[in-house]
Each structure stands twice: as structure tokens, then as C-alpha cells.
């Protein structure tokens, strides 16, 4: 069946930047096999601990993590969480045991239960726990602060220069979809994302909205694919 633009995918940094760098045979090409429609936005991650964790700031967390004979562990439920945590360990100069989960909610459950010391993840699965006071964000991973956690400093502000990492969401169609259809889709999605309802919806998920043109998404996607290769190499994560 020829591509007609009627099928779109809610794409992420996992599907279009991380997996091709983490998997030997992902089964698709994130650039060649898709037609970019629009970026939705960037989703900063944050370092989360339980509310009773002894460290309040990133410097205190790193001091605690680097204490002699300290046994630390953390949970990961997706590729963004995985790479961000490894980057934190490399840049922060400490080691911790990785515990893999099928999804982030399971990791959050064990963090709340005290079976994990920290999780680096996005705001979506943690928002209710932060509001309830059971989880505490220490620092966000992006260059700029999160719209969902405006009072939480960035890693850079907290003493880790050049730490700039964020998940992202976008819309792609099948490669070869008619340009006029891609244009129509772009205008419709951008209008919805920037509407008051759309802005509020994505803010609640911790996403800093940044829609644009298909060409801008194409350039961004190619850049992110390269950056994720650098992230994976820096974090020393082997391909599976």
C-alpha cells in the first residue's frame, strides 16, 4: 500500500534516536523510513529521591553517593532514564547498581518502597507523588528549567557544567507521504499543540512545547540521532 499520510506515529527519542544507537538491528531506519511532521516538545528528566532521602541538593547527593562503601542502586524503565542515569554517574563520579524494569511506574513503586535510592525520569509518572510530598526532585537534566518544576534547579546550575539531556516527542508519518498531506498534518498538529488546552495538557506532563516545521524536525532528528550516539558512548552502554 502506498503511503498516503493517513497513518502517523507518536514518535519519541526512544524510537527515533536511542534505539538505533542501543540496538544492533532495530529493524528500521529512523530517518529514511519516516516523514517528519512536527516536533511536539522537550521533556526534561529529573533526579528523584524519596522525601526522606538525606541529600537536599545535587552536591549533597553526589557526596552521599561517593561515600566509601556506599551501596547505591537505581531503577530504569525506558531508554531516556537509562542513559540519563548513566550520564549522571559518569559526570558525577560515582557508581550504582542498575535495576531494569518493564516500565517507569514499576521503578517508581520500588523507589517509594525504599528498594531503590534514586530514579532519573520524566515528570509524568512522578507528578502525583511530588505533589503528595512522597518524592522529591533534586535537579533537572535539561539546559533550562522544566515548566512542570520551575523551582527545581538544573544539573548545570547545581554544579555539573554541560549537562544537557531531555527526552522529546514528535509526530512522524510514513516515508513517501504526499507533501501536501504532510503540510496539512503539520498545521493541524501545531495548532492543537499551541492551543490553551494543548499547552496545559503538555505542561502537566512536564513537556516544554516546541512545535515547528517538518524541515525543522528532520534536522532536529538527525542531530539527536548523532547526539544519542555520543550519549551512549559516554555512558559506555553496550549495544544489544
UniProtKB/TrEMBL annotation:
Q: Which domain of life is it from?
A: Bacteria
Alphabetical list of Gene3D superfamilies matching this protein: Bordetella uptake gene, domain 1, Periplasmic binding protein-like II
Sequence similarity: Belongs to the UPF0065 (bug) family.
* Protein name per its UniProtKB record: Tripartite tricarboxylate transporter substrate binding protein
Amino acid at each position: 500500500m502506498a503511503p498516503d499520510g493517513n497513518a502517523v506515529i507518536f514518535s519519541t527519542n526512544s524510537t527515533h534516536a536511542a534505539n538505533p544507537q542501543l540496538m544492533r538491528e532495530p529493524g528500521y531506519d529512523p530517518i529514511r523510513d519516516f516523514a517528519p511532521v512536527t516536533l511536539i516538545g522537550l521533556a526534561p528528566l529529573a533526579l528523584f529521591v524519596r522525601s526522606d532521602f538525606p541529600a537536599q541538593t545535587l552536591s549533597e547527593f553526589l557526596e552521599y553517593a561517593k561515600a566509601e562503601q556506599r551501596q547505591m542502586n537505581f531503577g530504569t524503565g525506558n531508554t531516556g532514564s537509562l542513559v540519563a542515569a548513566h550520564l549522571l554517574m559518569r559526570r558525577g563520579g560515582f557508581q550504582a547498581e542498575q535495576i531494569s524494569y518493564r516500565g517507569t511506574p514499576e521503578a517508581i513503586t520500588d523507589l517509594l518502597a525504599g528498594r531503590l535510592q534514586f530514579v532519573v525520569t520524566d515528570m509524568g509518572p512522578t507528578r502525583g507523588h511530588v505533589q503528595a510530598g512522597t518524592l522529591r526532585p533534586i535537579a533537572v537534566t535539561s539546559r533550562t528549567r522544566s515548566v512542570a518544576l520551575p523551582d527545581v534547579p538544573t544539573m548545570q546550575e547545581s554544579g555539573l557544567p554541560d549537562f544537557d539531556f531531555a527526552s522529546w516527542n514528535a509526530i512522524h508519518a510514513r516515508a513517501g507521504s504526499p507533501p501536501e498531506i504532510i503540510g496539512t498534518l503539520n498545521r493541524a498538529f501545531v495548532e492543537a499543540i499551541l492551543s490553551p488546552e494543548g499547552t496545559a495538557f503538555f505542561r502537566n506532563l512536564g513537556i516544554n512545547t516546541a512545535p515547528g516545521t517538518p524541515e525543522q524536525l528532520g534536522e532536529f532528528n538527525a542531530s539527536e540521532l548523532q547526539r544519542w550516539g555520543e550519549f551512549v558512548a559516554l555512558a559506555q552502554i553496550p549495544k544489544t
